[in-house]
């Protein structure tokens, strides 16, 4: 199958609504509603680095979009549009069809529209740029945590890392854990509900300790976290801070978003991250999180 046939068959849909020109032209033309700001994020996933080579194409289609939607969630944005750059060793119709099904199943349920991209032959990789909308001045950022704020995370932290560890060691893991690794749930409703409540927010993609460090660095603060040693990695949950007096509102936002949130500590004025285990002892994790280009 040739490149343009592949695009037309699997990825081209009629432009509608805010999409003035979509897939099929040199570039997309999009209408940003008055009173809103555009939020843009990009993630690349490479075979052997971000996913196993034998991953199902439908699962890959889901996760490639989900990790970008998680970034939009962390900014409090409503998904709007995305582009797809897909590099394939071969354009096998059965593989591409399944990939597109997984991709569009999540896209349709999240209210986001494919508006362009590129296809190339080469080692398997997927790059998505996702765009969302947020009311002017209401985007959540990493830099607003204040002394005394509570620190929360959504969902469960550590499931994806446990699945990865199991697969690397044993070649298998419980179905529930594998789903958490390969089919994360972007916390879009929660992110939007936290606008005006959260003082800082980030999605946990590289490890809770490392990602919390980004909030602390951007906010010029420290934190004391009560959490037993754990694995963390590709969870794609939200890690956020909010004033202690807003606890009831945060819980209400979580319930309305059908998502559990857990307070795990406080923001402190002094720089530094202090991790406290169940016995009240401070500890340091063996590895704070994942980084590309780091030493093995």
Protein described:
The chain has 296 residues and is an alpha+beta fold. The mean pLDDT is 88. The chain has 2 domains: 3-135, 60s Ribosomal Protein L30, Chain: A; 150-283, PurM-like C-terminal domain (Phosphoribosyl-aminoimidazole Synthetase, Chain A, domain 2, Alpha-Beta Complex). It has helices at 3-11, 57-74, 93-110, 159-170, 175-182, 188-193, 208-219, 247-256, and strands spanning 19-21, 29-30, 36-46, 78-88, 113-121, 125-135, 150-154, 200-204, 222-226, 237-242, 261-268, 272-276, 282-283. Strands 8-10-7-11-9-12-13 form a 7-stranded mixed beta sheet, sandwiched between helices. Strands 3-6-4-5 form a 4-stranded mixed beta sheet.
- Output the strand order for the largest sheet: 8-10-7-11-9-12-13
The radius of gyration computed from the alpha-carbon positions, rounded to a whole number of angstroms, is: 20 Å
Percent of residues in helices comes to: 25-40%
Q: What general outline do the C-alpha atoms trace? A: globular
Distance between the termini: 40 Å
What is the tally of beta strands? 13
CATH class of the largest domain: Alpha Beta
Mean pLDDT: 88
Family: Belongs to the thiamine-monophosphate kinase family.
Binding site for Mg(2+) 4: 26, 41, 71
Domain PurM-like N-terminal: 24-134
Binding site for Mg(2+) 5: 206
Q: Can you lay out the helices and strands and say which pair or pack?
A:
Blueprint: H1 3-11, E1 19-21, E2 29-30, E3 36-46, H2 57-74, E4 78-88, H3 93-110, E5 113-121, E6 125-135, E7 150-154, H4 159-170, H5 175-182, H6 188-193, E8 200-204, H7 208-219, E9 222-226, E10 237-242, H8 247-256, E11 261-268, E12 272-276, E13 282-283
Parallel strand pairs: 4-5, 9-12
Antiparallel strand pairs: 1-2, 3-6, 4-6, 7-10, 7-11, 8-10, 9-11, 12-13
């Amino acid at each position: 199958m040739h490149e343009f046939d592949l695009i037309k068959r699997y990825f081209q849909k009629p432009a509608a609504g805010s999409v003035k020109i979509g897939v099929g032209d040199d570039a997309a033309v999009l209408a940003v509603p008055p009173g809103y700001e555009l939020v843009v994020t990009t993630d690349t996933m490479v075979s052997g680095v971000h996913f196993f080579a034998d991953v199902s194409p439908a699962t890959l289609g889901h996760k490639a979009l989900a990790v970008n939607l998680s970034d939009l969630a962390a900014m409090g944005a409503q998904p709007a549009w995305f582009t797809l750059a897909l590099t394939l060793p071969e354009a096998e119709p059965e593989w591409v069809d399944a990939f597109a099904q997984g991709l569009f199943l999540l896209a349709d349920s999240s209210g986001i529209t494919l508006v362009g991209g590129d296809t190339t032959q080469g080692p398997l990789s997927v790059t998505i740029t996702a765009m969302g909308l947020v009311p002017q001045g209401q985007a959540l950022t990493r830099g607003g945590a204040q002394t005394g704020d509570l620190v929360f995370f959504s969902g469960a932290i550590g499931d994806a890392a446990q699945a990865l560890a199991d697969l690397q060691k044993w070649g298998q893991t419980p179905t529930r854990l594998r789903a958490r690794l390969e089919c994360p749930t972007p916390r879009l409703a929660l992110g939007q509900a936290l606008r005006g409540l959260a003082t800082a927010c980030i999605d946990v993609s590289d490890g809770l300790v490392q990602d919390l460090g980004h909030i602390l660095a951007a906010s010029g603060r420290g934190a004391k976290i009560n959490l037993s040693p754990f694995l963390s990695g590709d969870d794609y949950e939200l890690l956020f801070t909010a004033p202690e007096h807003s606890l009831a509102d945060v819980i209400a936002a979580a319930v309305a978003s059908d998502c559990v949130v857990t307070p795990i500590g406080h923001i402190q004025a002094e720089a530094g991250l202090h991790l406290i285990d169940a016995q009240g002892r401070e500890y340091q994790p063996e590895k704070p999180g994942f980084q590309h280009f780091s030493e093995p």
